[in-house]
Design goal:
heterodimer; A: alpha+beta; Tetrahydropterin Synthase, Chain A; three-stranded antiparallel β-sheet; 41% strand; B: alpha+beta; 2 domains; 4 helices
């Protein structure tokens, strides 16, 4: 009877611990994932590839995918400085470089490269004239990259590539 | 039936009751809030308080915790046409970050925090820029951006939302 009582008390203790205090669970991060370990709601440290044990209720690992995010937008219209309307298409990619910054940058960190590249492209093109774009499309793309790169870095991203695949001004079409 | 058997039965009955209660408590989900989240706690449907970072384990299903993400959501409003103060056709595009200002209001006033706030932002933006005369100078852009941010935040404040880092990406 003593043994039975001991077993019951032990079982109840384990269940109470699991319900009220939490339990040890494991999380596995594959090679393209990085994580931030949160302890009692606050970031404790960054974790890399591997298997980790965390105590639910106290700790949690928020996982970030570090694979490149592709950005591709076509037929975007913008008004140029001289009043002409241009249609442009862009293609770019970025990946997470600083996990903690990316996690805090936005509710969905995958939206950040899209937002930054679209904003910078429109800002630069709006400040150009049709003649400037015709003269050197590469210089315009370089301006966009120079604007986008520091903004992405501040959000924990590294810009991998960017190009304007098409810029179309009435009667003058520039294809890549 | 002697005293030992009765005692054993009592232990068994107590253990069964406790196990049943623990299973019931165990079914209530645990909520974990990081430092960029807040939890709006309702007890029996009534708002009680806003929870900060940490792990929470409600004891009964009468407690409901709604998680609110306080991080910014980047939004783009592009190619919005309007007539300026001189009745000239103009176009404006902005980029901004939308975020939660008051977790309780955001959780209870809006079904879709971003989707339901965007029409207000668009409408207020148009109303604000219609009173201006379009100018390409950087100072004018900065002033209009600040005016837009102030006007929009005044409208969104009562729904617990706000925008920040407004940037005019296109103006003609």
């Amino acid at each position: 009877m003593t043994f039975t009582l001991f077993c019951f008390v032990f079982l109840l203790g384990v269940m109470a611990l699991r319900v009220f205090a939490g339990w040890l669970v494991s999380a596995t991060l594959v090679e393209y994932q990085r994580g931030v370990l949160f302890r009692r709601g606050f970031p404790a440290r960054e974790v890399g590839t591997g298997r980790y044990r965390v105590w639910t209720g106290i700790e949690k690992i928020m996982i970030v995918d570090t694979r490149p995010v592709q950005v591709s937008y076509e037929n975007q219209a913008v008004v140029l400085r001289d009043g002409a309307a241009a249609v442009y298409s862009l293609l770019g990619s970025a990946r997470v470089d600083d996990v903690r910054k990316a996690l805090y940058a936005a509710s969905n960190y995958n939206h950040v490269p899209v937002f930054v590249l679209l904003c910078c492209a429109r800002l630069v093109l709006n400040d150009c004239t049709g003649a400037q774009i015709m003269a050197s499309r590469d210089a315009v793309a370089e301006q966009i990259i120079n604007r986008a790169r520091p903004r992405l870095a501040a959000a924990g991203f590294e810009l991998l590539s960017f190009r304007l695949t098409e810029v179309s001004i009435p009667q003058q079409r520039i294809f890549e | 039936m002697n005293a030992a058997n009765v005692l054993e039965l009592v232990y068994l009955a107590t253990a069964v009751v406790l196990i049943v209660f623990l299973f019931r408590f165990g079914k209530v989900p645990r909520t974990y809030l990081t430092d960029y989240m807040r939890g709006v706690r309702f007890v029996k449907g009534t708002f009680v308080n806003v929870l900060g970072p940490g792990g929470y384990k409600p004891l009964t299903r009468r407690v409901h915790i709604e998680v609110v993400d306080m991080r910014a959501v980047p939004v783009l409003l592009e190619s919005i046409s309007y007539r300026d103060a001189l009745e000239s056709e103009s176009v404006i595009s902005i980029g901004a970050e939308m975020l939660v200002d008051d977790p309780y209001l955001a959780a209870t006033s809006l079904k879709n925090r971003i989707g339901d706030s965007l029409p207000i932002v668009r409408d207020t933006l148009r109303t604000t820029v219609c009173r201006t005369i379009a100018d390409r100078s950087p100072e004018f852009r900065a002033k209009v951006a600040a005016d837009i941010q102030g006007a929009v935040n005044e409208k969104l404040h009562r729904m617990g939302m706000k925008i920040s880092n407004v940037e005019i990406t296109e103006l003609f």
